[in-house]
Design a protein that fits this description.
Two copies of one chain form a homodimer. Chain A is an alpha/beta fold. Helices cover 41% and strands 21% of the residues of chain A. The first copy, chain A, is built from twelve helices and ten strands. Chain A has a six-stranded parallel beta sheet. The first copy, chain A, has a four-stranded mixed beta sheet with strand order 1-4-2-3. The longest helix of chain A is centred in the middle third of the chain and has 14 residues, at 125-138. The A-B interface holds A 126, 130, 133-140, 160, 162-164, 167-168, 233-243, 245-247, 249-250, 253, 256-257 and B 126, 130, 133-140, 160, 162-164, 167-168, 233-243, 245-247, 249-250, 253, 256-257.
Chain lengths: 257, 257
Amino acid sequence: MLSIRDRKLLTALERRKAREREGAFRAEGVRVVEDLLASDLTVRWVVSSPGLKASKRGERLVAQVEERGIRNHQISETELESLADTVTPQGIIAVGEIPQRDLARLAAILAGDAVILVLDAVQDPGNFGTLVRTADAVGASAVIALPGTVDSWNSKSVRAAAGSLFRLPIVRTTWPELLPWLRQEDFRVLASSAEGDPISQVGDIRRVALVVGNEGAGISDEIFANADRGVGVPLRGHAESLNVTAAAAILLYELLR
Amino acid sequence: MLSIRDRKLLTALERRKAREREGAFRAEGVRVVEDLLASDLTVRWVVSSPGLKASKRGERLVAQVEERGIRNHQISETELESLADTVTPQGIIAVGEIPQRDLARLAAILAGDAVILVLDAVQDPGNFGTLVRTADAVGASAVIALPGTVDSWNSKSVRAAAGSLFRLPIVRTTWPELLPWLRQEDFRVLASSAEGDPISQVGDIRRVALVVGNEGAGISDEIFANADRGVGVPLRGHAESLNVTAAAAILLYELLR
């Protein structure tokens, strides 16, 4: 049974304002909820339908939820489908707590060599999630989202990030706050652009903040003006540029290889 | 003025079957139509609205269409918006001809060193377009789409490919037809997977077919069994895998650097 209040919350969490007000987000589907449970984030409660237990994997997930003492509201398939954001909700939706992360706390965990990915107004939730997943996979230490960047906890971002949003620290801040912090923490600022130099030419890459820009407009002039260096992927083909997720994948890989 | 027949065609081209029957596709927006006109593909006709001429760039595009002797059906803003697939159609939609490309013709243009990207059931049109754009940018020579891969001429694929679909040869075929062709043309088959070896370990990469798989299931067993080698991006972070566009970007870049 799901109370009217909880049902309203679940629906409201599709909107950014409600997520910010409630400090909570939705995670949908077996894989995403597994990743959420494996992370340090707090899970408030879940809703699940009988179909979830049809698979061994679903059964294990239910058992894990119950062992952890997380409330499991059991609802019908039809009800779950009506609440779901995806076509195949796979019998489970969880409400997780948005972790509060800021620059001060980030400094404490970033000793030694570290690469940070900075997103300047990345608008597409699929791109955002893919960037976080890539950063996590190749070994970046954090993601910083500047104004204009899509909300991290959009359900499309959560899906595209495939669990990485629950692991990698994501901090929202502004450039005027970030820049002095980067200087103080001894990070070099590399701004990605089609005309930038190859990573092999930029010298010291022990502590780097790699900035990637908006899908259409690229990085803002203000950030470019403050960057230590422009970096890019040398292109040998015909397309003028890579999309932001492909460019970031190659640059991060080169920085961390 | 747009005849009822042409209007119906434009709407029908949103569906794969109609695209295949008509041998035509839609390209929408200033940038995409510019790229289409700059390519070798045939443009059947365009529809445009008065708003297009409000910008210098739009004006130049109209002039170019008319110089080339391409029919330009002028319609109202409202009519264009009702026909458009995107929220901001930017005053122009073109109907282009789908080029007919097959393995025999591909062989003729692929002498010497070459990297081909092979897509095994890549389902998402955004991923498909991004993969074609990346392949084109880093210097791959062709893309081969195996069964289960989304239609190349889906309007989302066309947008995500940002012009590269009009330049790079895309061939649709099956694995049983492709494999003997690859052997005969002396291509090594590298299958991408999370557990594969780094490109630095695979030896001769002068003529390579890099196969990437479905977003969820990866590469089919049949293809894996026929591949000369499994290749992957060594991951130093926490996520178990990269998404297909990020993995392909890094692997193609490594193969072609």
